[in-house]
Amino acid sequence: MKFLKISKQLIFIVISTICFACTESTAPELNENEEENKEENKEENEEENEEGNKEENEEENEERNVTININKTYQVIESFSASDCWVPNYIGNHWTENEKEKIAQLLFSRKINNGVPEGIGLSGWRFNLGGGTADQGSASGIEDIARRAESFMDPTNGTLNWTKQGGQQYFLEKAKGYGCEQFVMFSNTPPVYLTQNGKGYSDQGAYSNLKVDCYDDFAAYITTVIQHFKTEKDINFSYISPVNEPQYNWASGQEGTGWQNSEIKKLAVELNSALVNTGLDTKILLAEAGAWSYLYEIDGDGNRKNVIANLFNNSSSTYVGDLSHVAPIICGHSYWTDGNWHTLVDTRTKVAAAAQSAGLKTYQTEWSMLGDHFSTSEYVGHNNATYMDIALYMSKVIHCDLTYANVSSWSFWTSMDVERWGHKNRFFLIRITPAGGDYGDITKSGTHFATKTLWALGNYSLFVKPGYQRVDMEIKDYSNKLFGSAYISPDKKILVGVYTNLSNNNYDVKAQLNDLEIESIQTYTTSQSSNLSAQDINNVKTSIIVKPQSIMTVIYNLK
């Protein structure tokens, strides 16, 4: 123990001596290898600093493909929607609860579980106020059972039965339960009890099938239905659209009737009065033109065309703009003006100009891939098209409606239907297959399938929510094969970009956002192999690649 104590003292003296010597020296002596290592480390640190400064400068000066300016704003988005024509009534009435619930979830759910969306979160839903042809059966003159619609008004005596349209009511209530915000009631035909020929289709040619002495009765019926849903179901219809595609004569095949502009005014006056008398705040939507061009063109039947000027120019004999319940909105359908990029842009630019001149917002209230007028240079044709080709074309139409027609609401036509006659997914979001197959009895519960049109619409509807405002986006290589649009949330915390790449090349959409600071980024991609597939972008300065033949939604969470 004594030896150990002496040893400790000796060690202490030696260490103290060494430390004292070190403090007296300006620098320790380094061997040759240590000197080289020091110099190398110094050079590496200098290079890293230079490289870091270089990267920062490059980041600041980099020319990017996309520039988004939230200070340049356009229309506020109110809804993305679809309708319950025609088969939802049969599905809701006859199919299993499990099938119905899953279909409703796909249409309306906004939940995203671990990056996987349950549905596309539609913010609007269009409810067809049916004419009663389903109640007439084969006597309706409409051969296809799935194209007949029920009515709350009995076809024989005019009494009301609120159990009718039960399947439609099922999906209407599901929409409300999932948080859908905008409900539009629309009519293709007056109830058959009120029509001139007692049918849901017309034989009046260019004129309305509504009995000339029943305009007030039709208006009273509409307001009674709206009041019923408000009182009994706590469902408020924001809008009632009383006429649909009035430019067409609507012979047998499905419900419909033509209307003269003067007849539309007559009905609007009666409906406005009925809404005022009942104290409802529902507004009237006009006039669901069969094509955008009917809203402004003056050639042909002027009594059914040039709708904006006829209905909303105060010098017109058919002016309705002074009616308190007529919304300052003009509605059109995107059919027939969607065959090529030039027509898409030109027609919608003219619509926007005419609407703006009249002080109107625009709604696109119905589209599916109807007709065979599509340019062979922009579309492979129905026979060769994949389900994704059709979805991509739909995205092109949506983009042009949003950015050239400046629509505040965009709606697909039929939310669900059977796939027949090789139509693929041109006419539905969800494919319905009855137990007996595509041509089987629609009342026999079967299966459903979420198609690419559903998920492609979801790239818009799930993320561009009511109240978001379109802002300016510039794309360096913008074309009919590469395009996009951007939207900012009301609180300026979320910026959404939706890009469509129809080319065969990757495209980097990392955006110049001026002074905006990004907290995080997520992307959702729909392509041949993915359905709103999610990805977190860990480095907000990294490239964001939109792959060929795909639609990508980019969510910028801002600081």
TrEMBL record:
It holds the Pfam family Glyco_hydr_30_2. InterPro entries: 6GAL-like (IPR039514), 6GAL/EXGAL (IPR039743), GH (IPR017853), Glyco_hydro_b (IPR013780). Residues 31-50 have a biased composition (Acidic residues). Residues 29-65 are annotated as: Disordered. One of its GO terms (molecular function) is hydrolase activity, hydrolyzing O-glycosyl compounds. Residues 65-418 form the Endo-beta-1,6-galactanase-like domain. PANTHER family: ENDO-BETA-1,6-GALACTANASE (PTHR42767), ENDO-BETA-1,6-GALACTANASE-LIKE DOMAIN-CONTAINING PROTEIN (PTHR42767:SF1). This is Endo-beta-1,6-galactanase-like domain-containing protein.
